[in-house]
What does this fold into?
Amino acid sequence: MNEQDWTLINAWFDGQLSDSDRQAAEQRAATDPAFADGVALRRQMDGWLKAQPGREALHQTLQGLGDEFFTSTTAATPLPDPVLKISFARRWMAVAATLIVLCVAAWWLLRPTASLYEQYAMHAPLQLTQRGNTQALVTAAESAFRQKNYTEAASNLRQLLDQQTDNNTARLYLGICQIEINQTSDALNTLAPLAQGNTALRADAIWYSALAHIKAGNQAAARDFLNQINSGDEHAQQARELLEKMK
Amino acid sequence: MHADHQYIEALRRNDQRLIRDIYTHHAQAALRWVTQHNGSADDARDIFQEAVLALYDKAQNPDFVLTCPLGALLHLIWSRRWIDRLRQKKRESVVRLAEEQRYNTESTPDVLTLAEETLAAHSAQERMADAFRQISELCQQLLRSLADGMGASEVAALLQLNSVNTLYRRKNACMERWRTLYQAS
It folds into this structure.
C-alpha cells in the first residue's frame, strides 16, 4: 500500500473526508484487497491504542495475583545449567570475545545521531501550489517525494526553484531531500535563507537545519538551532525532547 | 459458547473477582507443570501471566467467543510459551518436551487452533507495542491523548501545536512512522 492510500485511510478514520469521498473509500475497501488490508491495519492500531489503559490495569491486577499464587516454597528446584570445563586457551578466547561484544555494544549505544535522526525525521507529504507552467514538475516532485525517491525529488525541486526562486515550500523540501541523501552541507545552505528569514516556514527550516547537523554528527550546532525554536512554534515539543536527549 | 466464556468477559472488563478465580483454578497446575519442566516458581508466574495477557489480547476481537474449557486453552498457551523459552536457552529437554506436547494436543485440534490464534494475536500486540515505543515521545503523547478521547483542539493546545490542521498533519506522520516500524518488525 502506498503512502497516498495510507493518508487517505487516516483522513477517513479521522473523519476528515467529505461524504462522497468517504463513500468512495468504503467502496474501495470492499473491492481492493490491498486497501482493505490498510484499513484493517489502521483499525488494529486504533484498537491497540484504545486497549492500552485496560491492558495496563489488567497487568497490575495480574502482578498482585502472581505474587500471591506463585511462591517458591512449593516449587521444585530448577535443574542447573550444565557446567562446562573450559580450557585455559578457550577461557582467553572467551574473554576476547566478551571484549569484542562489549566494544560493539558500546559503539552501538554511543551512536545516537543516526537513530535520533531517524526517530525525529518525519516529513509531512509535499504539497506544492502550482504556479505558471510547472504542473509536470510539481507532480513529479510530489510523486518522487511520496515514494521516498529523494534524489529525483531534489532534482525536480531544484528545477522548480530555478523558475521560482521565491518558492519557500520547494526550498524547504529541497533541504529535506538533501538531508535524506546525506548532502547535509548543501541542505544547510538551502535552508539558511528560510531559517534566517521571517516566513511561515522559519521554524520548519530551523528544525531541519538541526536535523541536518544531527545527521552529520554535529550535536553542538544542532543544539544552537534547536534553541532558536520558541515554545508555540512548529516542532517546539520535539525540539525540547531532542535537547533533553542530547544532554 | 462454553460456560468459561465468562472469564473472557471478565478479562475484557478487568473484573478482579473472576480473574482471581482464574488463578485459583489454574495457577497451581501451571506452577506444577513449569517446575516439573526445568522452571522455577518465578518462571511459572511469568509464563502464566503472559498466557492470561495473551487471552486478553485475543479478547480484543469483539467477535471472539470461547468454545472450549479455559483450563485446556491456558495449559496449551503456557506450555507453548515455556517450550519457546527453553528453546531460546537451548535446553536439551526441549525436543522431548515439544514431542510430548504435540502428542498431548493431537486429540484436541480445536483447542490447538485457538491457542495458535491466541498466541498470534499476542505476538501482533507485542510487535505493535515495540513499534510504538520506538516512535517519538511527542507522537506517543499525541496518539494516546486522542485515543483517550481528548478533543483535537485540546490536544493541539497541550502539545503546543499551532492549529488542529497541524495536529492532524503531525498525527498522519506519527501513524505512518508507527506503521512502517510495525511492518518492518
